[in-house]
Design brief:
globular, 24 helices, alpha+beta, 6-stranded mixed beta sheet, 8-stranded antiparallel beta sheet, about 35% helix
Length: about 850
């Protein structure tokens, strides 16, 4: 009896372990496996848990003659390794000369499933090496995060602390080649058809299992410097607790969700193994004052008395044909290829978008440094393939995603960019149409008809290509750029002709929505172009420095070049650590050196566009989908421009400076500018925007919803103003500079007098739009005070004081209510505040408010969100 009880308890404990651990599965027989797979799968060769011949004490398989393994049935692809396919098995034939060499292994999801982004997203990058150990080949994972000079004694300790992990071990099946160039043959099918933790998509999919029965290798291609493999993997996920086992009910858009639905998901995994240069490029040290992507290494052999993080910029390896010439062609130019799938009418614009950067590279001393070619037809070059790592390709993808991305593959040892594939999603055209019409459509007659003429859409696509090419040259976004031009220059035709309306293509400063009709700016200058920052940044990162043979020997010259920012603000890059606090580092902004004046001009243009909206979107015999979409995006543009003003409150003007430069990195925005910003919002964001409420539009797109649309837009602005981080910066500004700071109490008083302005009037009449706004204020205050992560700092007493003031004024205003609806609302305001301040009432969890008030301060993924949009819907 006791034995049976122990067995039952053992089973219960095992079941608990399986349920609670993501790394254990139970096959029903009492055995828990440490690597989670579908029932009946055998652990793969070389992985933990394997019961195969090599680890189980059984007789080891002997190396067979070459012809017995690679038979006459083999389909062989020549390349850096020979790749043999025999039926459904794949073999690598690895030359001894490639053993111990560094390869970059890049894993991406080529085709995905709902809820996990879109095809082309990067899963992982890592450096690997193939090593022979007796009759085994080991695939090792090599890290360059910590390094040391090989001549320094600490190098031995670094090596001992950084032993490359074994990803997988393979039995040598046969040996080939000759005595001068021997090779080893291994079967690699399990490397791609089964789940290998280092290359797995399980975490990205938020899946539970991988089903081997529905997973297989699609193809493996070998090229002179790389091997490209594609495999189909099927993952499963059990239904959620209490679910029906099928697909959940109505789902939000997959663009805003993460993780697969319960059931099955099949994805295609693309693995690219690229040989790294055997003669590494000399790296160039990173400098926070100049915008470059970078690689990081901790160097333990530096003379400083600590482990030093060294950062090197990512850039292409350009060398002059004539090192003595001021302007020389490179030995090898940067070449981009146009995907054959690109619609032919756009090919000239794609090529121009790439070659726009030639002017910037001339500043670095290179002529024709970057060129674009059309992909050859198969009959012209049967060996050309877009997945060959020798080719950087601008891929045109048949996707309804309104975006584009420009990732690149680089050497983690030096930052050398090796290859890129720009991903161009077909429906980015729709996004460009919407933005261009809403921002400058009143200035360009070509934009006052749908669809746009090819001439206009072509130059818009050219702009997108140039921006994404910038990423593939090593440049991240530079949101500060648009705030470095004086506002009057943005309206000066001569200035924008030579300098553009923003100093760089890498800003999110789209089309010049500040320009007024009377400014006379030519339509070709409404679109950003290569600017002075782009030319200067290319010079800083790519110009050779004669006589320098190490990164440290370049540092003095690079520092001197960076100091040009002191006298030319438009050469500045985003300040390290300033995101969210510097109102000059905003997305989708034009003229944000003076956000209040720029937004005032922007509102004039939005009203002009609103006047055109119905006429432009009316198509004979068509529905009102365009009208609905553009009206929602019109409100989104309004919200963005209001958000640019809100960012001034609690803000800091910043400049990235290093030792030897004058001044400080962060300077509070003046009290006058902050107060002006709140006044502007009270008059333009919190006073109902009647010009947006157009019955001739609304009655065509919906029976109801305008109250929620306007309320949603206002909530976003209000939520940004009353963010905890912003308020805490106000408190700190007052603590450090009490005589000049915009005091938190004054800020809240100014905001209250705008949002609840009716309480200060002799006759109190609050319409439906304002009632929505005032309830939104109370809802937000409730979440800040009583939410699960509510304020536990100075914001709490300040908000409580504000609510008591509002409650008192609402109660006193009851007798002055001009109508029944206003009287009921005032009573409700008073009662709501009583509940918010009364600890006897249940606290809000804040979850609903977080969603209703978000949207102005999202963080963006550099590689996948270059073109984020904001659409306001009911």
């Amino acid at each position: 009896m006791h034995s049976l009880t122990r067995l039952r308890w053992a089973g219960v404990l095992l079941l608990i372990a399986v349920v609670t651990s993501p790394d254990l599965v139970w096959d029903g027989s009492g055995t828990a496996y440490a690597f989670q797979e579908e029932e009946g799968d055998e652990p793969q060769e070389g992985q933990r848990g394997s019961r195969g011949r090599r680890g189980g004490g059984e007789e080891e398989e002997k190396i067979k003659p070459y012809g017995e393994v690679i038979t006459d049935k083999a389909e062989t692809d020549e390349g850096i390794f020979k790749v043999h396919k025999i039926e459904d098995k794949y073999y690598y034939e690895i030359p001894r000369s490639e053993m111990g060499k560094d390869f970059l292994w890049v894993t991406t999801i080529a085709k995905t499933t709902l809820g996990v982004g879109y095809g082309g997203q990067r899963l992982d990058n890592r450096v690997v090496r193939w090593e022979r150990r007796g009759d085994q080949i080991l695939l090792r994972d090599v890290e360059y995060d910590i390094v040391a000079d090989p001549g320094h004694p600490i190098a031995l300790a670094v090596e001992a602390a950084n032993n490359p992990a074994i990803i997988q071990a393979f039995a040598v099946k046969a040996e080939g080649g000759d005595d001068s160039s021997p090779t080893a043959v291994i079967e690699v099918t399990p490397l791609f058809s089964r789940e290998v933790q280092e290359f797995s998509a399980r975490s990205r999919l938020q899946a539970r299992n991988m089903d081997r029965g529905r997973s297989f290798v699609d193809r493996i291609d070998s090229f002179p410097t790389n091997i490209e493999a594609r495999a189909t993997h099927t993952y499963t996920k059990p239904p959620e607790s209490g679910g029906s086992g099928g697909r959940r009910g109505p789902q939000p858009s997959s663009r805003f969700r993460r993780g697969m639905d319960p059931g099955s998901a099949t994805v295609q995994i693309h693995s690219s193994m690229v040989k790294l240069p055997e003669d590494p490029m000399m790296p160039r040290l990173h400098d926070e004052r100049v915008g470059y992507f970078s690689v990081r290494q901790t160097d333990y052999s530096r003379p400083e008395h600590k482990a030093v993080e060294r950062r090197y910029i990512t850039r292409w390896r350009l060398q002059k044909k004539d090192p003595s010439a001021e302007l020389s062609e490179p030995l090898e130019p940067i070449v981009y290829w146009v995907d054959p799938a690109t619609p032919p009418q756009w090919i000239p614009y794609v090529k121009r978008g790439v070659e726009k950067w030639q002017a910037a590279f001339e500043e670095a001393g290179f002529k024709n440094a970057i060129i674009c070619k059309e992909a050859p037809a198969p009959e012209e070059d049967p060996e050309w393939h877009p997945e060959d790592a020798r080719y950087s390709v601008i891929r045109w993808l048949p996707s309804d995603i309104e975006n584009a991305s420009g990732p690149h593959v680089h050497d983690p040892r030096t930052g050398q960019i090796l290859e890129t594939d720009i991903q161009f999603y077909h429906n980015v055209q729709n996004l460009l149409r919407s933005w261009y019409f809403l921002q400058v459509g009143h200035l360009d007659e070509r934009a006052q008809q749908f669809p746009f003429p090819d001439e206009l859409m072509g130059v818009l696509l050219e702009y997108v290509v140039a921006h994404e090419v910038g990423h593939t040259l090593g440049f991240p976004h530079n949101m500060k750029a648009s705030s470095t031009y004086p506002l009057e220059k943005v309206r000066d035709p001569e200035w924008v002709r030579t300098m553009s309306h923003t100093p760089t293509l890498m800003d999110y400063s789209r089309f010049n929505y500040v320009a007024q009709p009377e400014d006379g700016i030519p339509i070709e200058d409404l679109i950003p172009k290569i600017g002075p920052y782009d030319k200067w940044a290319v010079m800083w990162g790519y110009k050779p420095i004669p006589g320098a043979s190490t990164p440290d020997e370049e540092k003095a010259v690079l520092d001197e070049w960076a100091r040009a920012q002191d006298d030319k603000p438009w050469l500045r890059f985003s300040t390290d650590g300033s995101q969210g606090s510097d109102p000059g580092e905003l997305t989708e902004a034009v003229g944000d050196a003076d956000a209040v004046a720029a937004s005032e001009l922007g509102l004039k243009n939005l009203q002009r566009v609103a006047d055109m909206l119905l006429d432009v979107t009316t198509q004979e015999g068509e529905n009102w989908d365009d009208l609905d979409e553009l009206y929602g995006r019109l409100l989104g543009q309004w919200v963005r421009e209001m958000g640019h003003v809100a960012a001034l409150v609690g803000g800091f003007d910043s400049q990235q400076i290093h030792g030897g430069q004058q001044g400080v990195r962060f300077q509070p925005v003046s009290r006058e500018r902050q107060s002006e910003a709140v006044g502007f919002l009270n008059e333009n964001a919190f006073v109902t925007p009647q010009w947006l409420i157009r019955k001739e539009i609304l009655r065509r797109i919906e029976p109801a919803g305008v109250l929620e649309r306007v309320g949603s837009a206002q909530r976003r602005v209000l939520g940004s103003l009353l963010s905890s981080n912003r308020f805490n910066r106000l408190v700190e500004q007052e603590a450090l500079d009490p005589s000049v700071a915009y005091q938190p109490a004054q800020f809240l008083d100014d905001l209250r007098r705008g949002v609840f302005s009716e309480l200060y009037q002799q006759s109190v009449q609050v319409d439906a739009y304002r009632r929505n706004l005032q309830r939104a204020y109370l809802e937000l205050a409730d979440s800040r005070l009583n939410g699960s992560d509510g304020a536990d700092d100075d914001m709490r007493p300040f908000l409580r004081g504000e609510l008591m003031e509002i409650s008192s004024r609402a109660e006193n205003s009851l007798s002055r209510a001009a109508d029944t609806a206003s009287r009921y609302h005032l009573q409700d305001v008073h009662d709501r505040i009583e509940r918010i301040l009364d600890p006897r009432f249940p606290s809000s969890d804040g979850s609903d408010a977080a969603g209703r008030f978000g949207g102005l301060d999202e963080q963006l993924d550099e590689e996948t969100s270059c073109w984020p949009d904001l659409v306001i819907r009911p």
